[in-house]
Amino acid sequence: MESTIISSSNFNAYFGTNHVVKNVNIEIPKNSVIAVMGPSGCGKTTFLRCINRMHELTPGATSDGKMMLHDDDVYEMHPIFVRLKIGMVFQRPNPFPNLSIYDNVIAGYKLNGLRLSKSEKDRIVEQSLTRSALWNEVKDSLHKKGTFLSGGQQQRLCIARAIAMEPEVLLLDEPTSALDPISTASIEELLYELKSTYTLVIVTHNMQQAARVSNKTAFFYLGELVEYNVTKELFTNPKDSRTQNYITGRFS
Ligand SMILES: Nc1ncnc2c1ncn2[C@@H]1O[C@H](COP(=O)(O)OP(=O)(O)OP(=O)(O)O)[C@@H](O)[C@H]1O
Questions:
Q1: Beta pairing class for 33-37 and 199-203
Q2: d(C-alpha 166, C-alpha 145), whole Å
Q3: Using CA positions, which residue lies closest to atom 7 of ligand 1?
Q4: Using CA positions, which residue lies closest to atom 20 of ligand 1?
Q5: Ligand 1, pocket-test mutation among 24, 40, 46, 252, most atoms within 8 A of CB
Q6: Using one digit for the tens of pLDDT, what is the confidence trace for 183-192?
Q7: What GO CC terms are in its UniProt record (predicted)?
Q8: Helix, coil or strand: residue 168
Q9: In Å, how far from its chain's centre is CA 4?
Q10: 3-state secondary structure of 221
Q11: Given CA atoms 136, 142, 144, 147 in this order, what sign does their dihedral have?
């Protein structure tokens, strides 16, 4: 039986009085890829940011309801610990511009004041870059700046930086929207590899991408989770007319 890693119940999020995520109930199975889709402004990014408590970093942003990681209430855990367990990759690759590739990978440890020996650092850097399918391309230039890499390589570096902290869940907010088709394909391939170790939740506007990479898809509309199902089923046999209208391109 598949086990649930993240579950939300009656989860709401607000910016001031603007109610942007409405009563969301979802269960995310471990070692799966979940695509979050829906029209612009429907609350996809906000919901993603609620999973690891990034939402509360925005002034005026609040939330209520339950968000669980296994049997632990995320909102009763220390936020730093939550973000170690639930990593995030953003839309635009954002390696630290002044740091080398090597230091980018272990930046999370430094930022959180966690000290590592040189051999631990070397091991984590090699392992994370191998898992993010970047090691072979950068192993001879680890001490060059991360910004010298291509956009797709920078995004893989950001994935390496996130997985260096050994999270259980990786949240990805439109991780390929700033990339060319070849880099996009390499990230999609990587997502497929990563799901054997991590659980991935990916916001995407690209229906083909959702169909290619995800096991289940969550369709949001005006802040509501309208439909959540096995991706193939949701695309071929949507139950709700709003999902049907979206996947047939009647609104974007
Ligand atoms: N920092 C913010 N302050 C105030 N309102 C915000 C903020 N960020 C988002 N919102 C509002 O919250 C709602 C949901 O936005 P969100 O970014 O979660 O939607 P989305 O589905 O991810 O959109 P997109 O696909 O365009 O990225 C929108 O009405 C948006 O205007």
A1: parallel
A2: 23
A3: 15
A4: 41
A5: 46
A6: 899 899 999 8
A7: membrane
A8: coil
A9: 17
A10: strand
A11: positive
CB contact at 8 A, 32 and 26: no
Tokens of 250: 């009647």
Q: At 45, which amino acid appears? A: T
Give CA–CA dist 199/190, Å, rounded: 13
pLDDT tens digits along 55-97? 999 999 999 999 999 999 999 999 989 999 999 999 988 999 9
Q: Are 47 and 13 in contact (CB under 8 A)?
A: yes
Q: Whose CA is nearest to atom 27 of ligand 1?
A: 40
Please identify which residue in the block is written with the tokens 């959540």.
228
State both tokens at 192: 């497929």
> What are the structure tokens assigned to 190, written together?
């990587």
Structure tokens at 186: 């390499």
**pTM of this structure:** 0.94
DSSP label of 194: H
Residue 103 token pair: 């230091």
- What pLDDT score does 183 carry? 87
Q: How much is the ipTM here?
A: 0.97
| Structure tokens that stand for 68 in this block | 């669980």
